[in-house]
Amino acid sequence: MRRGIERTWTRWGAVVALIGAGALGGCLSVAQEPVTTDDTGRDGLGADAPGQDAKGDDAGQDVVENADVDGNEVADGGGGDADVMGDDALDAGPETVAEVLEDVPPDEGGEVLEDVAADAPDEVFEDVSDDGAGPDVPDDAGGPGDANDADGDVPPTCEPTGEEACNGLDDDCDGLTDEADADGCAEYFWDFDGDGYGLDEGPDGVESRCLCAPEDFWRAEVGGDCNDEEVAVHPQADEVCNQVDDDCDGKIDPPELALDAKYYFRDQDGDGWGHPTDSVLSCAPFGQYTATKTGDCCDSDADVFPGQKAWFEQQSACGSFDYDCVDGAVQELTAIGKCAALSGGLCSASPQGWESAAPACGESGQWVFDCKIALPCAPATVKKFQRCR
Predict the structure, then answer these.
(1) Which residues contact 249 (CB under 8 A, 6 or more apart)?
(2) DSSP string, 358-385
(3) CA angle, 290 as apex, 289 and 295 as ends, to 5°?
(4) Which of 164, 165, 313, 385 is deepest in the core (most CB within 10 A)?
């Protein structure tokens, strides 16, 4: 009977150790000293103290150093772990509370132990996940995604109530990593053409997504694209004259921005030359602003323009004989003609020219074109108008 009572209290110490370890989440590594209530050591000194002959085998003081209550052998340099139970039960591996209770007779305190064990864990767990946080709790004990997951299928860093962050980990135990809107995410726009600029409104009306990294066509960090199927069209594109809103400013071919816009001069007479002080910047000609060449000095007369080679007897529509728009009017003919007698009674007009001074532009005069074959030599003349340009 004495031995039974002692065994009961020894088991009680193991149960307390197991319950305490389960509640605190720590690993079992230190044995609970068996407690005796009588002088089992038979030394006449009253109840045995820890380390005395608690087994009652008259073998002297029991060894308690490196006691192994969790079934894991601890090297003690002395030939093995001490068996505080006295029955080598724990040397084979960890005992559960249920296993301990099976060996406790009801009349020796088993009912009390069962009451205490009702709140104790059914198993003893080691730190399988090696996260340094004590014994692990299985999924069915701590719930799916428990922070200490013994089977290792959930990272030890996640918490079901945790906030997802952009760190490559499943922070909230939902099986997903770095989801949209995670802490530290960046705004990405839908960019189908890959020009670096996304639409302000992507598929299904979604403006943008906050992501930890680009995903599919959600890859542009800047929005504002107005044509996501044309690489050359985006907010920073150069505007050119092409009937397209290249830079997405809502304007098509604005001349003040288009790189190839031209100045078109007013060409009222349609001679291809425009007035030098009347022009507009445009991507295309319109109205009377059609000339790209300038310098017309009389835009109401198509015969007047820079580089004119023809000569004119009458004034232009502008009342001038300056048809080539260079240094005023220039006379076509200025030479003075004369007749000279040649040997043998012949005459010759050399050179041809005006009989007297050259007339003004548009005026007429006698033009010596030959000499009469008679003596004395007389000039042959014709009326001629002075032409100018």
Answers:
(1) 235, 239, 257
(2) PPPTT-EEEEEEEEESSSS-EEEEEEEE
(3) 85
(4) 164
